[in-house]
Amino acid sequence: MGRKIRKINIVIDEDVYQELENLVPSGKRSQVVNAALRRELELLRRQKAVQRLLDQEALGKKIATREIVDALAADRGSH
What we know:
This protein has one domain. The chain has 79 residues and is mainly α. The longest helix has 30 residues, at 29-58. The chain has three helices and no strands. Helix content is 67%, strand content 0%. The two termini are 19 Å apart.
């Protein structure tokens, strides 16, 4: 079975649109936007994980270095 895709309507700034139109052929734009979104979502996911660690530390909970390393390895392996 093929991957699922979904068409959405989004609003982007005019300057971003112009660069996308000028730099990326029309048949590749969805691919470029998907790749950029994946990178941004990965960054947000990691920032959220770091914040959870900081929140736990603020509550006085200790997290072993091994647990952190294992969690990072699992995150990297998941995508």
